[in-house]
Amino acid sequence: MLDDFLIRATLAGVGVGLGAALLGCFVVWRRMAYFGDATAHAAILGVALSLGFSLPIPGGVLVVALVMALTITALSRRGQAMDTVLGVLAHAALAFGLMAVAFLPGARLNLESYLFGDILSVSKSDLALVWGGTVLLALWLAWRWQALLTATLNPDLAAASGIDPEREQLGLTLALALVVALSIKVVGALLITALLIIPAAAARPFARTPEAMLGLAAVVAVASALGGLRLAWVLDTPAGPSIVTCAVILFALGQIVARLRRG
Question: Which of 95, 63, 90 lies closest to 75, judged by CA?
Fold first, then answer.
């Protein structure tokens, strides 16, 4: 059954959507959108290094994303102006990555797939990587849920309860790097942050509890993946941008419904 590329693409989209939704709620709660953007842009540099040294691309992307995430975390602890630092690091990583890819023989032909994803070329090994990482992320969130939630909503209360907010932040940083590495083949480096933020933002007006928001975000993400693939098939458009477009449409519809309910 997995020999059909459309089935592999669908499973990959659902897997990445679930992983992004699980982490996206914390990205929205902690206002880490720019943080995620910088980490995602670093993925292109990871692709270039992987191709240059003949290493597995997900591994190279994960290492560079981790380095970027840890660098940002270290700078934030020193009281740097984070909006400026994130802007500089994000664009620097993207520029260096694009320049490095340009020097690699034959890499230019594949550059668009790394920027916007190429979900239709997902292999069985890619699928195993995506779902393995998503299951690992779900288990980690189930284990650290209460501590992460407390550290996110009230760091002082977390510290008083014996929870180390910085340790939870570090765990979230590592998880974000993992999601970036898993997502680059599906939606690409430029669209990963959108998949992290939009489903969570769409779910927020309708959720009364953090758990409900997580569940609704997962539903929106899966619906976006399925709808985006259908849209790409019907209109012959790139799959990655089509998935994000569906997520934006669901977000817009959700905002309209939320306003009507308030009115």
Answer: 90
